[in-house]
Amino acid sequence: MGFSRLMFRLLRKLIKLVLYLAFVAAAVYYTPRILANVLNTEYPLATITSGSMWPVLKENDLILVKGMEGSDAEIGQIIIFRNAKSFTIHRLIKKTDDGKLVTMGDANDVEDAPITEADVIGRVVYLRDKPFRIPKAGSFARILGPKIQQAMQ
After folding, report:
1. Which one, out of 8, 25, 54, 97, has a CA that is 20 to 30 A from the CA of 105?
2. Architecture in CATH for domain 39-152
3. Torsion of CA 134, 137, 139, 140, to 10 degrees
């Protein structure tokens, strides 16, 4: 009788572990898909990869991105736009007379080269009056991101 109780306990622990791992895997797989639909963008999550937006956003912060058209961008918003290599996350500081947008990182001394409204993919999601960010979580996203993107294709 002692052996069967031990086996039952081990089996119960194994089932709990399998269910836990299945839940975590589902969360990792489906969360970006759900967020993409809710936030209306292909890119609902982003990682801050430099100190250019310090102190508002710090390196390895994970942020949420709300999709929007460049024409809807407002001065003072932190926007996400395409650059030659990938994306940039900087604050919109002005709009030029010829319809270009000028951004700059909060910690930078120099403006970025002007971009077009078509380059904008979204803006940072705010919670109350501060950008929603998960400190240090971007480190995990950098590791898991490519794997999740491959799984989603």
Report:
1. 97
2. Ribbon (2.10)
3. -150
